[in-house]
Amino acid sequence: IPVEEVGKAPDKVPLFRGHTAAVLDTDFNPFNDNIIISGSDDAKIGIWKIPEDYSFHNYVDEKDEIKDISPVALYSGHKRKVGHVQFHPIAENVAASSSGDYTVKLWDVENGKDKITLTHKDLVTSFSFNYNGNMLATTSRDRKLRVWDIRSNEIVSEGPGHTGAKNARAVWLGNSDRIGTTGFSRLSDRQLGVWDATNISAGPIGGFYT
Asked: What global pTM score does this model have?
């Protein structure tokens, strides 16, 4: 919403339409505030551009009807729903997506080609780039935490994560070799873990925090 547009939201607003099922995740491009990536239940990845003349309150055509915005591109490559999308932190036009087809894909956003596929044994429930984007941490429904070297497409460290049945999430902690996770124990206690990315199998540092 343009900063200068204040006041109550109108009853009808312009919408970004193009997916044929629920949108599950979005991310802004760190190099361009007007570009957004989306992942959807329709197994597609959308690239969207906020129009330069965009208005939240008054984006209408000649007939005074609200205009919707279509995607710049829709990319296919995943076989099932795309649950998470994220732009690469330092490489322009690179993004990652995870899907119900048990993969994480890295995309050349400009031409819509999936260049790298990281194959898992079960559903990927979250992922996070490290500070310079050459490593990726993933959590999975198989209850394992993995660290991938993206370029070589290999796991550099892995081990058992949270033991509960509910989904765990991981986030890389700044410019460090530490990963933070949230999840659950077998008894459904809410847990936090901090891990050494180079030695996941050693378990969380100091055990889980409940």
From this structure: 0.90
How far, CA to CA in Å, does 25 sit from each of 39, 87, 162, 193?
5, 12, 23, 24
- Tell me the pLDDT tens digit for each residue of 114-157: 999 999 999 999 999 999 999 999 999 999 999 999 989 999 99
Instruction: Tell me the residue type at 142.
Output: D
**Whose CA is closest to 132, among 149, 152, 110?**
149
Mean predicted lDDT score pLDDT of the chain: 95
Instruction: State the Cα–Cα distance between residues 95 and 78, nearest whole angstrom.
Output: 14
The 82-87 sheet, strands edge to edge = 82-87, 94-99, 103-108, 113-119
**Of 102, 74, 92, nearest to 31 (Cα)?**
92
Tens digit of each residue's pLDDT (9 = 90 or more) over 59-85: 999 998 999 999 999 999 999 999 999
